[in-house]
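> run fold S1 motif domain-containing protein
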Amino acid sequence: MKVNLRNVKLGDFNLLKIVRKADFGYYLDAKTGNTNDDILLPNGSIEGKNLSIGDEVNAFIYRDSKDRVIATLKAPLAKVGEVAYLKVTSNTKIGSFADFGLEKDILIPLREQKYRLDEGQKYLLYIYEDKTGRLAATTDIDKYLEELEINQGEKISGIVYGFQTNGSLRVAIDGKYKGVVLKNEYFTNFKIGDKVEGVVKRIYDDGIVGIRLRATKLEERSELQKKIVKYLEENDGVMKFNDKSSPESIKEQFNTSKNYFKIALGGLMKQDVISQDEFGTKLK
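> ok
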C-alpha cells in the first residue's frame, strides 16, 4: 500500500499522534485525513515507553526492508541532510551497506562511491532521499561541508575524506567543516576514513581551515632522534643513511623529510652520539 507522505518528512523525526493500537504496534496519523496512510510504529521500536492512543510521539520515519513506510522511536546515527561516520557492513552487486543505527542498513549505491569501501571500516557519508523515496548515502560529501569560524592555534579533530591532486589531505573537522592538511605537513600514510587530530594553522580565503598535524619542531626532532638511535642499535650500530642520502630513501625508511632528518642527525652529532662519513652513520 502506497502511503501519502506529503505532510511527513522521510528520513527525519516527526511529531505524530497515536490514533490506534494493534497487537503488533501502534498506528500514527500521517496528517492526510486518510486512515490508509497511517504509519505503523512496531512494538519493537517503542524503546520500552508506555504509550496510549492520543499520545504524540517524536518518531523517525523511514522505509523498512520490505519497503514499507514505518516509524521508530529509536534514534538513527544520522538524518537526511546530515553527514555521518558510518561502518560499512557489506559489499554487494548494487552497492555497499552501512550500519545506520536502525534495523535496516543504509545503501551506498555503486554510482555514489568515489572510492573503494572496505567492510568493517568507517567512512563519512551524506544521507539523502533518492528518487524512489528510499534513504541512501553517498561518499561525495565535499559540497555538504560548511565553513568553520575558528582561531589559529585551536585544537581540532577530524576525519580524512579524500585527497587533493597535489597529495594534500581533505579533512572534515568534526565531520561537518572543510579542512585541509598540506602534503608537506604530514608523513604518515593516511587512508580515507582515518581520524586525525591537530591545530588550526591558518584560514584560507575560501574558508577552508588549514590544519597542522605534526608536533612542534622540537618534539618532532626528539622523536626522530630516538627513531634513528633505535634503528642503529637494531643494525649493529651502523646505517647507510646520512645527510647526503636521497629524500626518497629517507622518507621511505624514517617517514620524514630530508630537512628534518638532517636537523636530527646534527643534534645527535652535537651530543656526540653518532658520527658520519661518506658511507653512512655510526653509533658511538
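The domain at 83-142 is CATH 2.40.50.140 (OB fold (Dihydrolipoamide Acetyltransferase, E2P)).
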